[in-house]
Every structure is written in structure tokens, then in C-alpha cells.
Amino acid sequence: MVLAAVGLLGSTVPAYAAVHLHGGEVFDATANRGHGDSAVLNQFVLRISRDGRSLVFEADQIIGVECTSGPTKGNGPSLNVSGGHARIGNDDAFRIVLATNDGGNAPIILSGRFVSSRRLVGFVGFAGGRQDPRCNSQLPLIARLRVRTHYRTQHFSGLTATGARLSFYRTVARRPQVVGLTVSSLTADCADGSTEQKTIDDYLGFDTPIRHGAFSYGDEDDSSEYFTFSGRFSHDAAATGSVGLTGRDDCGVADLRWSAKHVGAGPTVTLVSH
After folding, report:
1. CA-based Rg of the chain, rounded to a whole angstrom?
2. 209-247: pLDDT as tens digits
3. Residue 19: which residues within 8 A CB-CB, separation 6 or more?
4. What is the mean pLDDT of residues 192-201?
5. How distant is the alpha carbon of residue 213 from its chain centre?
């Protein structure tokens, strides 16, 4: 036991910590409160140092606060925060003091502890702003380990009802997902009665689970146009569904039917989960 305490357990696991943390791991954090237009929504990244002993807040991230006292109660500034780090204690706790890049503001305090190797909880605290010295804010902090998993894929290719070529991939996994979508030469109807050719760009950034053979998804493509894509696998080698597109110029495609077949192996893709 004494030998383990001086580091013979390996460099990626701090020998003194109850929670096993590995150097270089990334945690996606949120510190939010409220709903609607008055909500305070924060998303930022925390990282374990290479030696596994410190928690690092990357520089130049924005944190919004909500004042719970003072003249600006219910509101608060969004602050550009300098980077910082702090040692993770024997009790798996941390306290990071982050200077703001806006002169006259008090620092942001990130404090909490790791409840497991995949999750930490705590608070984002702020006391004393330039515009309101009596502003106090404490937002709940939750962060989850960013897990990257590599998947082999199957390539599906087909056509829409109007003859536009369509292509996507299905991951080879116990819980498969649809990833990536390319649709070319979609004829979109415009509000002024004209038509316009549209495409949905190759978009490997999205993923959607297949449940009971069916899937449905909607998001912006690489051209910042909103698309919907849904379907069902009739068996392992074929699928049918519909695709839609809402353009930025009042031109769109509504629920166009498609069909596709398995045509071979696709690329290996990396998906992020928590």
C-alpha cells in the first residue's frame, strides 16, 4: 500500500484519488438556470491535465451569471474568462479561480468535486461586478466525460421520388445509429412560385439512434438550411422514408419520399457521447 502511494499505480491515475481520472480527458460542462428568454445558459469545456492531477479551464470561454442580489437582481453580465487550473484534492474536490478579461469584475469561481470518473458536480460563483458591486451569483455546475467511440459503418445509397441521389451510413453496433447524409439536386418550391435547386451537404456531424427499425432527425446542414430526415429499415439491406428542407430564401422541400439499399461498407466514424 505504501508503494502504491508514491505512484507505482501508473502515471494516468493519481494514486491519492478515490476517483480514477486519466490525463487529457475532456468534460463538457453546463451551468444553467431558468427557462425562456431570461434563462442563463452556459456551456464550456474542462480538461484533465496530462498528469491526471489538475482540472483545467481553457482560456477565452464566456460565462454568463445571474445576480441574486443587488440592483441588477435577475440579470447579470456575460464575462470573457481567462484560463485557469487547480489541483484535484485527495477528496476529489477542486476550486478554480478564473480572472475575467473585463476590467473591474471579480473573478469567477468554479468549485465542486468528482462524483465518479465520468461526472463532476459543483457551482459557478461570482461576487461583485463592475456594473453592480452587490451582484452575487451561484449557478449549479454539472460536467460529463466526453467519450469518443469509433464505429464501422454500412453505406446506404438510393434516390428520392424526384430522382435526387441520396446517401447515408448506418453504424455497426449493438445500438445502431444513422450518421451522415448527402442529398443532391433537390428541387425546392419558392414562395414567389419559382423553383431552385438545393442540396443537403455531407453532414457527418449528426447522429440519430435507430429504434425498432425507425429513425427521425432534424438539424441545420452545412449551408445553414434546416432539414428533416426520417425513415425505417424494412430489413438489414433496405430502407424508405422522407426528407424535407427549409431554405433561408423561402424555398423548401416538403416530405419528399426516398428509398435506399445497402451498397457496401462505409467509412469509420467517431461519435461523441456522455
Report:
1. 24
2. 899 999 998 877 666 678 889 999 998 899 999 998 887
3. 92, 114, 115, 116, 117
4. 85
5. 25
